[in-house]
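Team,

Forwarding the record for the chain on the shared tracking sheet. I've put the sequence and predicted structure together so nobody has to dig through attachments.
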Amino acid sequence: MAGKKQFDMDTVLDAAMIQFWRSGYADTSLDDLSRATGLNRSSIYSSLGDKDALFLRCLDRYATRYGDKYDAALSCAAEDPVAAVRAFFDVTLERIADPAVPDGCLMAQSVMASPALSPGVAEHVKELFVLQRPRLRAALEAGGMSEENAADFAVHIAAVNQSLAVMGRAGSSHEQLRAIVGVTVDALARALRPVGPRESSLRE
């Protein structure tokens, strides 16, 4: 049929996302996007918008895809917050180990590249980057942690989570990354452990 798009939008957006993820925004040209998606430049413009518009769509796609996985991992936080946070980290570790996607984190590398982005795109990147904190804070509060402690741990867990992507890209082994996660999960378990009578009396 005349005028019908001869491509699958999900496939094209995934290809563009991988290209931005692998090379970064600044080092990805329209020619790179054309090769990755199989679309010529005019089709990219007419169907997907300019480079900034396509990058934003890819960022939102990435944030939604992994955000849904993080939400699913944290869904058991009310019953077992420690297991929920461990599952949260598993999402990142599984992504790092996945040979089908580039190393690192698209969101983290985009934040680092903010000076090369237009102001509007840079602001959107920062908004997406901090979404982990309220997600984690809500889960920890649901698990019985105080509001103040949950806020502090949410910042810490989000920071460790981003560091895993950076260290994975730098060549750290899966075992080393697991060890980092273990330290954080153990600290969380201790913070959530009820204070016994002896510990309580020692603190008084």
